[in-house]
Prior knowledge:
Distance between the termini: 23 Å
Shape: globular
Largest sheet: 8 strands, parallel
Oligomer: single chain
Strand content: 15-25%
Order of helices and strands: HEHEHHEHEHEHEHEHEH
Structural class: alpha/beta
Bound molecules: pyridoxal-5'-phosphate
Amino acid sequence: MAAAISDRFAAVRAELARACVAAGRDPGDVRLLAVSKTQPLSSIVEALQSAQLDFGENYAQELRDKSAALASDSRLGESAKNVRWHFIGPLQRNKVNLVAGRVSLIHSVDSLALVAALAGRITRLRESDSTLTQDCLIEVNVGDESQKAGCSPSELAPILDAIAASEGRLRCRGLMCLPPQVDEPEAVRPYFRKLRELAQNAAQTPRPHVELRELSMGMSHDFPVAVAEGATIVRVGTALFGARGPA
Ligand SMILES: *Cc1c(COP(=O)(O)O)cnc(C)c1O
């Protein structure tokens, strides 16, 4: 029988805490993001019962449908209201309306066109909520893979400049990466290190509404290595929820 979700959460949290201690870091400085894509709502409810509040989704419609279903589930009470949704998948410009202004953090901003589309959407939403802002991370294609989402390192500065010019419609909180898939977790270490160095270099140029504090990196099989390289958010799916069904 598959392990209960509460047991899986306990095991991953313990491993995360060990990784922090081993790296000389405070466990409170690394957030566990539960990647719930393609998982049923019942699994999210179980995770909520294990005091998990940060959930990551990859598909805009799935995020909209799940967040609406949770919010209207009267059995869940207060905890459902405190859920923080994160959008971590590739974001098409025609799906921006489903995501902008509805999530705590978008991890996958990777082009000037997407910055413009998001800022435009926030401008419209500001007609009813004048202080609205959208926090995001810039996804960098650290492995320089042709099929992968993410900007190249050389595109990072212009994207940050565009966010700085958005007058607070968008706020950049840091960087995200999805390194090349390799069997050996140690082999991804250079990519995690590269993301940290890119953030450190970019932070030398102060820009309004740009803070490069968050590093979203590390998944089920390699998050301890990411923690050793400075991750502040680890995105864990399979290790918490078990294998995924088809999308
Ligand atoms: C699916 C996914 C994850 C989680 O992957 P696991 O290997 O299941 O932990 C993390 N980040 C992104 C961007 C994903 O798409």
